[in-house]
Structures are given as structure tokens and as C-alpha cells.
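Consider this:
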Amino acid sequence: MYTLPSLKQLPFLGKKTVPARLRKDLWHPLCLVEFPRPSQGLLAYRRLREFRRLHETSYPLSLITKTEGPLQGQLHSTKKRGKILMDQKANSIADLAAVLALQKRGPTKKHVEEANRRVERVRTQKERGKKKFRRRNPQGADPGGVEGVKVRWANLLDAEFAEKWPEEVVHDGLTRHRYTAALPLIEEGGEAIEDGQKKAEIPVALLGQDGKAGTELRT
């Protein structure tokens, strides 16, 4: 995860809504989508950016309006509005499912014709010796389909934010991020308790019979 390119993708929705940098121990990937063809991935990425822009600019006014209390009908504070609009986790997952459903249908006849015209135009300009077209290599419209698409989730339950997924899409777990801090070992009676063997809460400070502060580990 690169800080500067990632920060440019975060919208500015008010003061302090964009962090100065991304801490790798706090920010981790939501999911990883694997496509069998590069054209599939580029098309999905373009559509996801378009959907995200709509969420940032075309949201209903009721989303940032107070619905209870004496100030009902007024806008939330700038800080709270920023938090509401920045919380796009559910929308992002639903958008991904919608994009894959669109790719399953395949391109329309209009998109195929536009792609063919673009390829023909670049080929003609190359034959004429136009320098700015030398490195361009456009391709035709992607044939569509989601066979071979795999979504790896950091938390498999996040997939439930979407109402429906294409049947061909495979869901799997994502390996643990290398910057995620390991869970600490809990010592009790001089023995270390491995994670998963015994559930424990935060130690609570107590006052012993001798008047000295002690600790008790609630399990």
C-alpha cells in the first residue's frame, strides 16, 4: 500500500477528513479481486470509480440531516457529515457485486461498435505515421463473463453487504496482512496462554486485603 497514491483516492469532505498519512498497522485491504483477463480488471476498476463518484456527490440530503431532537431537519456538523460520507464500506461491496453482474451480461452492441471504431481509427493513424499513436494499442470490447473471477476477503462476512452475487464468482479468505500486529500472549500463573485456547478480557485493577493494588484476570 503506497501512501501518496492512496491518499489521492480519498475525497476531501471537510477539515481532517483526509489523514496526513496511512498507518500500515491500521489500514488494511478490504478484499482482493482476481480477474483472468486484464481487460476485465480495467473495466471493473473504471466502473467502480464512477460508482464511487456518484456516492460522493449524489447522496440524499436525508443522509446528513438530523432526524431527532430539537434540531430536527438541520444538517449535522461538518465533522459528523465527513464521517457519514466517508463510510463507504457497504456501498463499495454492493458496487463490486453490481459491476460483476454487469460484466456477466457482456457488452452491449453500442459498446462493441464504439470499441471497433476506436481500434480502426488508431490503426489508420499509425499507417499515416502519426507519432502520438505509435504506442497506443487499443483493444476491442471485452467479451464479458465472470468465469474465473475470485474475490479474497479479509472477512468473509463482509460479502453479505451485497444483496446478490453472480454464481460464477468464487469467494475465499485473504491471507493475514504482514503489517497487522499479532495478538499478545496472556500470562497467568507463569504460563503463556496461546490465542484461541482461552478467552480473556482486559485485566482489572483490584485492591487486595493488605491494602496493595493487585490485578485479577477475568475469563
